[in-house]
Design brief:
The chain contains ten helices and seven strands. The protein is of the alpha/beta class. Helix 3 crosses helix 4. Bound molecules: S-adenosylmethionine.
Length: about 250
């Protein structure tokens, strides 16, 4: 406990983060539900607007956490598409985070209509999910937690239908030294305003640390290309005043 430098052994890193989420789960939405940092809510809405899911799609919310992205997905389907058949599968490795998502979404009309499925699982290996089964694979602020991104991206490629889209939202860690330094300061500022209300600061910092270690956007775009995704233009768009990046890839049709 209290250690901020990760062991680079993949399994160890995952366990440390899992421990952090177990401790932090109840407080997570003070950050990401928008009560301390409203920008996080604005960013999720902004992303759903950019994703603009079509009616009837099958949506996979990988690293669902407490369920925020799925909520915006269904709200979008209701409000913009007036759609009542699209479905969502919600996956997370952490029992506590997933149980908050269940509490939050398990009683909604979407769940009662059988449109929501919860799976406790690891993004690296999802035997519960068959090949070619989703139109959208969304990983919102979860990829920075993955020690083996290549395995995760390969698994995403497998479960997406041909022509299906992957959307990864991450921190934009920047490409040049001064930009990285400015971003580092901004992240610290966000930690300060949100962290004041969070009891377990050590665990929160452990999670933030893993976010800052994420590769630069062009480097991650290359990883997506290496996994076989087709990327349009430069492969990502700046979000949240360019503090974040939305990576968009397509599974080729042949
Ligand atoms: C920063 S939270 C993001 C939650 C949610 N997507 C959101 O935007 O609010 C990251 C989530 O990824 C989950 N996670 C980390 N590693 C995972 C893995 N290998 N497979 C599935 N979920 C994982 C964590 O348990 C945590 O709930």
């Amino acid at each position: 406990m209290g250690k901020l430098v990760f062991d680079t052994t993949p399994g160890v890193e995952t366990n440390e983060l899992d421990e952090a989420y177990t401790t932090f789960a109840e407080e997570y939405d003070k950050y990401h539900g928008g009560s301390s940092v409203p920008q996080t809510t604005i960013a999720k809405k902004e992303c759903m607007g950019l994703i603009s899911p079509k009616p009837g799609v099958k949506f996979l919310d990988m690293t669902v956490g407490t369920g925020n992205a799925t909520m915006y997905f269904f709200e979008y389907q209701d409000r913009i598409n007036r759609n009542t058949v699209s479905t969502a599968t919600l996956v997370d490795l952490n029992t506590n985070m997933l149980s908050i998502a269940k509490k939050r979404l398990g009683d909604t009309k979407w769940a009662k209509d059988g449109r929501i499925e919860f799976i406790k699982g690891n993004a690296e290996h999802m035997p519960e999910i068959s090949d070619n089964s989703f139109d959208i694979y969304c990983c919102y602020l979860g990829m920075h937690n993955m020690p083996n991104r290549n395995k995760v991206l390969r698994e995403a490629m497998r479960v997406l239908k041909p022509g299906g889209k992957i959307y990864v939202v991450e921190f934009d860690t920047g490409t040049w030294r001064i930009g990285k330094a400015i971003r580092g300061l901004l992240f610290q500022f966000l930690e300060l305003i949100a962290g004041g209300s969070v009891q377990n600061r050590t665990m929160t910092l452990r999670i933030h640390h893993s976010g800052r270690a994420f590769p630069s956007p062009p480097a991650f775009v290359q990883e997506m290309k290496d996994a076989g995704f087709a990327m349009e233009n430069n492969g990502y768009r700046g979000i949240m005043y360019t503090l974040g990046a939305l990576f968009i890839g397509t599974k080729p049709t042949e």
